[in-house]
Structure formats: C-alpha cells, structure tokens
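**User:**
Everyone, produce one record:

**Assistant:**
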Amino acid sequence: MAVDWDSYDAEQVRLMGEQCIVVDENDKPIGADSKKNCHLMTNINNGLLHRAFSVFIFNNEGNLLLQQRADEKITFPGYFTNTCCSHPLMVKDETEEGDQIGARRAAQRKLEHELGIPAEQVPLDQLEFLTRIHYLAPSDGLWGEHEIDYIFIYKGEVTCDPNPNEVKSVRYVSKAELQEIFATADSKGMLLTPWFKLIVQEFLYKWWDNLDSLKQFKDTKTIHRLLPN
C-alpha cells in the first residue's frame, strides 16, 4: 500500500524522517531506521522492532495526567493515552545505555515538545524507571507499532502548554475515573492506545497504589512480552 503523504499533516510527515533505534528482541541496538519505516505494518510484519518509552506523570494528589493525541498524528490520531509516549532517537545523547539515561533524555525532550513541560520540572534522576514491555499493535492497515517500551513514572507538579500539533487535550484523572474510562470507553466511542491499555491492565494499578515506594517494582532485566497470540 503506497503512502499518500499529501493526506497527512506536513509537520508530522517531517517527523517521520527521525531516526529511531532499531533493536533485537533482547533490546540490543542493531541499527537505525526512519520513524516512517519503523511504523509501516509491512516492515513490522517482517520483524522490524524499535525502542520507545512511555511516561506516566502523577500530581501530588495522585492523579494521572492523560493526553489525547492530536488529529494530525499519523498513528493513532485522536486516541487517549498516558502522559507522553515516543522514541529515543539514534543520536549520541539518546543511545547511552547506563541507567536508561538515553531513554530518560528522550522522555524529557518529548515532554517539552508535546506538552510544554519544562525540563527542569522533570529531572532525569526523578523519572522512575519501572520495566520494559514488548508489544505489537496495528493502527490501521498501513501503520502500526512494534516496540520495546521503557516505562517511567514521575510524581510531582508540572505546568502544561500543549503543542496542538501533537496533543488535542489533556486532563488529570483519579484511579477511579480511569477505571470508569476503561469500563465505558467502547460504549462511548472513546479510543485508547493499545500500549496504554496493556500497561494499565498488567501493571498500572499496583504502581498507582504505591507511588511513594516504587523502587520495589523496578525491574531492569525483564522484558515483558505482551504480544498478540
């Protein structure tokens, strides 16, 4: 299926040229490829896998910051998801491995780009790394995701100034409100990103109940395989 670039937002097309980190199933970097190529289902079906991150920001009251992806997005437009999710790039600062520093820097960069959250409000050493998940999910017949996703949690107050080309809306929700969203999303026609669903269903609520003692859940070795059967 050919890509009709004229049907997409120009800025989002430009971002499709960014170079993602291609990895093997054990998260070992094996090269780089464009964001475009990493998200084409034809390549995903042939095993192309890249590195990603997902950030969950909670305020001091313990509410989670959600975003709704902009309609301009090429993959999963208009979907609700966790605070921020994107990719470390094949650049020096974001390929460093120790203490997940490359992924931390990428997360800090994208929090500012997407949500206007200043870097100083989310210090790198306060992004709490929990674990990694490996998942695969189509967006439509052309695009999809196949990622090893680094999960970070941050608790604290932040100021948001969303980039409308990236983010359609933001809101804070309590745990009970998120549970209600998940229970009623289908009937209300509310779209939720697949990685967000997986993380919520498998992990998030136990983390949410222990926001002040997350180190007990930190797992730097496991890659949880949450793949379609």
